[in-house]
């Protein structure tokens, strides 16, 4: 069950376009498991060697904070986001509502 859930999380995360971010909770809600945002976080933490790669750097907390940055080491998560045009100041995604990608809305189109 856990691997299946992780695989579903990875499928959604791979759809996040460059220059956009989503939250653990938004992915959980889209998958119909609203209370499982922490499990989405565990999936992101475990995706290092998953193929095809998962853009885990595009998944942040519900306020737009880079709460998982220590898993990337140093400022790598911030650098990856900024290379895609997402501005980050003090571990906070700027213009969060503008760059937020909600799978429930985006994948319903």
Description of the molecule:
By secondary structure, the protein is mainly alpha-helical. It is built from seven helices and four strands; from the N terminus they run αβααβααββαα. A two-stranded parallel ribbon has the order 1-2. Strands 3-4 form a two-stranded antiparallel sheet.
At a glance:
The chain has 109 residues and is mostly helical.
Topology overview:
Layout: H1 2-13, E1 22-23, H2 24-30, H3 37-45, E2 59-60, H4 69-72, H5 76-83, E3 88-89, E4 92-93, H6 96-99, H7 103-106
Parallel strand pairs: 1-2
Antiparallel strand pairs: 3-4
Helix pairs in contact: 1-3, 2-3
Features:
two-stranded parallel ribbon, two-stranded antiparallel ribbon, 109 residues, 7% strand, single chain, mainly alpha
**How far do the termini sit from each other?**
29 Å
**Average pLDDT taken over every residue:** 94
Beta-strand percent range: 5-15%
Biggest pleated sheet: 2 strands, parallel
Low-confidence stretches: none
Class of secondary structure makeup? mainly alpha
Give the proportion of residues in helices. Answer: 40-55%
Counting DSSP H or I runs of 4 or more residues, the number of helices is: 7
């Amino acid at each position: 069950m856990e691997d299946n859930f992780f695989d579903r999380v990875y499928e959604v995360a791979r759809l996040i376009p460059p220059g956009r971010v989503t939250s653990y909770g938004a992915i959980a809600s889209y998958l119909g498991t609203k209370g499982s945002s922490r499990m989405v976080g565990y999936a992101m933490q475990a995706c290092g060697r998953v193929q095809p790669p998962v853009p885990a750097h595009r998944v942040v907390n519900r306020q737009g904070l880079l709460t998982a940055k220590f898993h990337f080491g140093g400022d790598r998560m911030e650098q990856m986001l900024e290379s895609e045009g997402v501005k980050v100041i003090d571990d906070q995604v700027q213009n969060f509502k503008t760059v937020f990608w909600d799978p429930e809305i985006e994948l319903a189109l």
